[in-house]
Design goal:
This protein has two domains: 136 residues, 3-Layer(aba) Sandwich (Rossmann fold); 155 residues, Tumour Suppressor Smad4 (Sandwich). Strand 13 and strand 14 form a beta hairpin. It has eleven helices and 15 strands. The chain has 326 residues and is of the alpha+beta class. Helix 2 packs parallel to helix 4. Strands 5, 6, 7, 8, 9, 10, 11, 12, 13, 14 and 15 form an eleven-stranded antiparallel β-sheet that branches. A four-stranded parallel β-sheet has the order 2-1-3-4, sandwiched between helices. The protein is elongated, with a radius of gyration of 20 Å.
Length: 326
């Protein structure tokens, strides 16, 4: 009987760049399970999309068992866009090897290669929504504002050495230059007119290592969580920042938070946008949701409230501030 195939889509530059040291182990584990690995190295948006475009729509699910995506949120974004654009519905196994790995943290997916392959062999899957913004798909977050492109500006060497803390430090360095921007948010339920510094449209719960940016977000509820940070003084920013770290910012008058299945965002000025850690489209932006579009391999046990690495990051950041943020 012909072995089923597994597509391994990996980014050799993600995180500390050490993933390639695990290639032989991954191939061995799948071969022992009677499956054949097809490795595809990430280089831009073309490689995986071209491969998936060549699959037979009538038979690919009989021929292929899974797609294993190794990298950060940007790598997952490329993978999911390629899958949806080519009509592919295969289970997705995530091997987090990026800097923040926010989407994987929602499912409490381990970063250890052995444990991820164990998870892949269990074949326990859950459905997850996919967001859409101006025709492009996103798995975790679309961010808009003057500090949301910090992941693109942060030095890769610094990211590899101190992780998500590099994002925080880069973002803090830009705070003095912030200016509030007038925006209009149109939803089926309500129209909002606000002055904001930045905002996020969340499918998951965390972004840039902030583990509780949208603490009430559900990955399969058919809704997006919108979190907008209103105009505030420099004196108020540290307190709001501390609330973000602790997931308590929803009660702040400086934060607008709501759920919706459709959103149009307009602004008087052009603003930087970021989709899953990469450059996004220009305004105006139109958001929608594909409910339950992808299958994610997950652990059978319930996820923890907050991953250990998230707790460490939060405690390190709290030491930067004298205020307790209450």
């Amino acid at each position: 009987m012909q072995r089923k195939k597994v597509i391994l889509f990996y980014n050799p530059q993600s995180g500390n760049g050490m993933f390639k040291n695990h290639l032989d182990y991954i191939i061995e584990r799948y071969q022992d399970a009677g499956m054949r690995v097809i490795p595809i190295r990430a280089y831009g948006d073309a490689g995986l999309a071209e491969y998936l475009a060549g699959l037979d729509p009538a038979t690919y699910q009989e021929e292929y068992a899974q797609i294993l995506a190794a990298g950060g949120d940007g790598t997952l974004n490329v993978c999911v866009n390629a899958m949806i654009e080519n009509g592919i519905d295969l289970p997705l196994v995530i091997l987090p090897s990026g800097t923040a790995n926010d989407f994987a943290s929602y499912f409490n997916i381990p970063t250890d290669v052995e444990r991820v392959i164990d998870l892949a062999m269990e074949q326990n899957y859950t459905r997850a929504d996919v967001g859409i913004v101006n025709g492009r798909y996103f798995i975790n977050v679309a961010a808009i504002g003057q500090v949301v492109d910090v992941s693109q500006k942060t030095d890769p060497t610094l990211k590899n050495s101190i992780g998500v803390l590099a994002y925080y430090l880069k973002g803090l360095s830009e705070v003095p230059d912030l200016k509030p921007i007038k925006v209009t948010l149109k939803t089926p339920e309500k129209v909002y007119k606000e002055k904001m510094y930045f905002m996020v449209v969340m499918n998951g719960r965390s972004a840039g290592g902030f583990r509780n940016l949208a603490p009430d977000s559900e990955i399969n509820d058919g809704k997006l969580d919108v979190v907008l940070f209103r105009n505030m003084s420099l004196f108020e920013m540290p307190q709001v920042f501390m609330r973000i770290l602790r997931g308590r910012h929803g009660s702040s008058q400086k934060v607008l938070h709501f759920k919706t299945s459709h959103l149009v965002l307009e602004a008087e000025d052009d603003l930087p946008t970021d989709i899953d850690g990469e450059h996004g489209a220009k305004l105006p932006l139109e958001f929608a949701v594909l409910p339950g579009r992808i299958r994610i391999a997950v652990q059978k046990e319930a996820p923890r409230e907050e991953a250990a690495d998230g707790q460490r990051d939060r405690k390190r950041l709290e030491r930067f501030f004298l205020s307790d943020g209450r």
